[in-house]
Specification:
Length: 167
Protein backbone atom coordinates (compact mmCIF):
# COMPACT_ATOMS: atom_id res chain seq x y z
CA UNK A 1 0.00 0.00 0.00
CA UNK A 2 1.14 3.52 -0.64
CA UNK A 3 0.26 7.12 0.17
CA UNK A 4 1.44 10.16 -1.80
CA UNK A 5 1.64 13.86 -1.06
CA UNK A 6 2.88 16.68 -3.28
CA UNK A 7 3.58 20.40 -3.15
CA UNK A 8 4.22 22.80 -6.01
CA UNK A 9 5.94 26.18 -5.94
CA UNK A 10 7.89 28.65 -8.06
CA UNK A 11 11.64 29.21 -7.72
CA UNK A 12 13.21 32.39 -9.08
CA UNK A 13 16.49 30.93 -10.27
CA UNK A 14 17.98 29.08 -13.22
CA UNK A 15 16.59 25.74 -14.31
CA UNK A 16 19.94 24.03 -13.63
CA UNK A 17 20.13 25.38 -10.08
CA UNK A 18 16.51 24.44 -9.30
CA UNK A 19 17.23 20.95 -10.59
CA UNK A 20 20.63 20.28 -9.00
CA UNK A 21 20.41 21.99 -5.62
CA UNK A 22 18.11 19.57 -3.72
CA UNK A 23 20.18 16.50 -4.59
CA UNK A 24 23.73 17.75 -5.04
CA UNK A 25 24.12 20.37 -2.29
CA UNK A 26 25.06 19.71 1.33
CA UNK A 27 22.19 17.58 2.68
CA UNK A 28 22.75 18.98 6.20
CA UNK A 29 21.57 22.36 4.91
CA UNK A 30 18.48 20.79 3.30
CA UNK A 31 17.33 18.36 6.02
CA UNK A 32 17.79 20.57 9.08
CA UNK A 33 15.19 18.81 11.22
CA UNK A 34 11.63 19.88 11.84
CA UNK A 35 8.99 18.62 14.25
CA UNK A 36 9.51 14.90 14.86
CA UNK A 37 12.09 14.58 12.06
CA UNK A 38 15.71 14.81 13.25
CA UNK A 39 18.29 16.83 11.36
CA UNK A 40 20.77 15.11 9.08
CA UNK A 41 24.31 15.35 10.47
CA UNK A 42 26.29 13.82 7.60
CA UNK A 43 26.50 11.08 4.96
CA UNK A 44 29.04 8.38 4.20
CA UNK A 45 29.68 6.09 1.25
CA UNK A 46 28.40 8.85 -1.04
CA UNK A 47 30.99 8.71 -3.82
CA UNK A 48 28.34 7.66 -6.38
CA UNK A 49 25.61 10.03 -5.15
CA UNK A 50 23.90 12.05 -7.89
CA UNK A 51 24.24 9.34 -10.52
CA UNK A 52 21.55 6.77 -11.34
CA UNK A 53 22.24 3.76 -9.13
CA UNK A 54 24.28 5.90 -6.73
CA UNK A 55 23.68 5.76 -2.99
CA UNK A 56 24.67 7.20 0.38
CA UNK A 57 24.24 6.28 4.03
CA UNK A 58 22.45 9.03 5.95
CA UNK A 59 23.14 9.86 9.61
CA UNK A 60 20.83 11.89 11.85
CA UNK A 61 21.06 13.71 15.17
CA UNK A 62 19.86 12.27 18.46
CA UNK A 63 16.26 13.09 19.42
CA UNK A 64 13.78 11.82 21.98
CA UNK A 65 12.70 9.12 19.50
CA UNK A 66 16.07 8.26 17.89
CA UNK A 67 19.43 7.44 19.48
CA UNK A 68 21.30 9.27 16.73
CA UNK A 69 23.60 7.79 14.10
CA UNK A 70 22.93 5.95 10.86
CA UNK A 71 19.29 6.34 9.84
CA UNK A 72 18.79 5.09 6.28
CA UNK A 73 20.12 4.44 2.81
CA UNK A 74 19.34 6.86 -0.03
CA UNK A 75 19.47 5.64 -3.65
CA UNK A 76 19.14 7.55 -6.91
CA UNK A 77 16.59 5.66 -9.02
CA UNK A 78 16.22 8.11 -11.92
CA UNK A 79 17.81 11.34 -13.12
CA UNK A 80 16.62 13.17 -16.21
CA UNK A 81 18.81 16.26 -16.48
CA UNK A 82 17.05 19.54 -15.64
CA UNK A 83 13.68 17.75 -15.42
CA UNK A 84 13.36 14.97 -12.88
CA UNK A 85 14.90 13.12 -9.95
CA UNK A 86 13.56 10.02 -8.24
CA UNK A 87 15.21 8.76 -5.07
CA UNK A 88 14.42 6.03 -2.58
CA UNK A 89 14.95 6.07 1.16
CA UNK A 90 15.06 2.60 2.71
CA UNK A 91 16.96 0.30 5.06
CA UNK A 92 15.70 2.36 8.01
CA UNK A 93 17.75 2.34 11.21
CA UNK A 94 15.39 4.88 12.79
CA UNK A 95 11.89 4.03 13.98
CA UNK A 96 10.02 3.77 10.66
CA UNK A 97 6.48 3.54 12.06
CA UNK A 98 5.87 0.55 9.81
CA UNK A 99 6.94 2.24 6.58
CA UNK A 100 8.92 -0.01 4.26
CA UNK A 101 10.42 2.77 2.10
CA UNK A 102 9.88 6.32 0.86
CA UNK A 103 10.27 7.52 -2.71
CA UNK A 104 10.89 11.19 -3.36
CA UNK A 105 10.49 12.91 -6.70
CA UNK A 106 11.61 16.39 -7.78
CA UNK A 107 10.26 17.83 -11.03
CA UNK A 108 11.50 21.10 -12.57
CA UNK A 109 9.87 22.96 -15.46
CA UNK A 110 11.20 26.27 -16.74
CA UNK A 111 8.27 28.64 -17.25
CA UNK A 112 10.47 31.47 -18.54
CA UNK A 113 14.03 32.67 -17.96
CA UNK A 114 14.67 32.73 -14.18
CA UNK A 115 11.26 31.25 -13.27
CA UNK A 116 11.02 27.52 -12.56
CA UNK A 117 8.04 25.50 -11.40
CA UNK A 118 9.04 22.86 -8.83
CA UNK A 119 6.85 19.87 -7.97
CA UNK A 120 8.04 17.94 -4.93
CA UNK A 121 6.35 14.59 -4.31
CA UNK A 122 6.78 11.81 -1.78
CA UNK A 123 5.23 8.36 -1.82
CA UNK A 124 5.35 6.29 1.37
CA UNK A 125 5.18 2.51 1.10
CA UNK A 126 3.85 0.10 3.72
CA UNK A 127 2.82 -3.53 3.90
CA UNK A 128 0.50 -2.98 6.89
CA UNK A 129 -3.21 -2.58 6.26
CA UNK A 130 -3.68 -2.05 10.01
CA UNK A 131 -1.33 0.96 10.04
CA UNK A 132 -2.63 2.43 6.77
CA UNK A 133 -4.89 5.07 8.41
CA UNK A 134 -1.96 6.25 10.52
CA UNK A 135 0.35 6.23 7.48
CA UNK A 136 -2.15 8.27 5.47
CA UNK A 137 -2.40 10.89 8.27
CA UNK A 138 1.37 10.97 8.77
CA UNK A 139 2.01 11.45 5.04
CA UNK A 140 -0.67 14.08 4.50
CA UNK A 141 -0.05 16.10 7.68
CA UNK A 142 3.37 15.53 9.25
CA UNK A 143 5.44 14.66 6.17
CA UNK A 144 3.80 17.30 3.98
CA UNK A 145 4.63 19.93 6.61
CA UNK A 146 8.22 18.66 6.73
CA UNK A 147 8.39 18.84 2.91
CA UNK A 148 7.43 22.54 3.07
CA UNK A 149 10.31 23.14 5.50
CA UNK A 150 12.76 21.29 3.21
CA UNK A 151 11.47 23.14 0.14
CA UNK A 152 12.17 26.50 1.79
CA UNK A 153 15.69 25.38 2.72
CA UNK A 154 16.26 24.40 -0.92
CA UNK A 155 14.86 27.74 -2.13
CA UNK A 156 17.36 29.58 0.12
CA UNK A 157 20.24 27.47 -1.18
CA UNK A 158 19.30 28.22 -4.80
CA UNK A 159 19.25 31.96 -4.08
CA UNK A 160 22.60 31.75 -2.26
CA UNK A 161 23.99 29.71 -5.16
CA UNK A 162 25.31 27.22 -2.63
CA UNK A 163 28.10 25.00 -3.96
CA UNK A 164 27.36 21.43 -5.02
CA UNK A 165 29.09 18.64 -3.14
CA UNK A 166 28.34 16.10 -5.86
CA UNK A 167 27.99 16.21 -9.64
Amino acid sequence: MQTTTQITTIFHTTLARAFKTPMLCDITKVHTGHGVTPRVTHCTDDETWGKVGGSRKVFMAKTWSFKGGESSLDKVLERKENEYWKIEISDFKTPSMGFEKFQGEWFTTQLREGVVEVRYRYTMFSKSIVLYPFHWLFTKLVWRNYMKHVLENIRKLTLQEAPYLHE
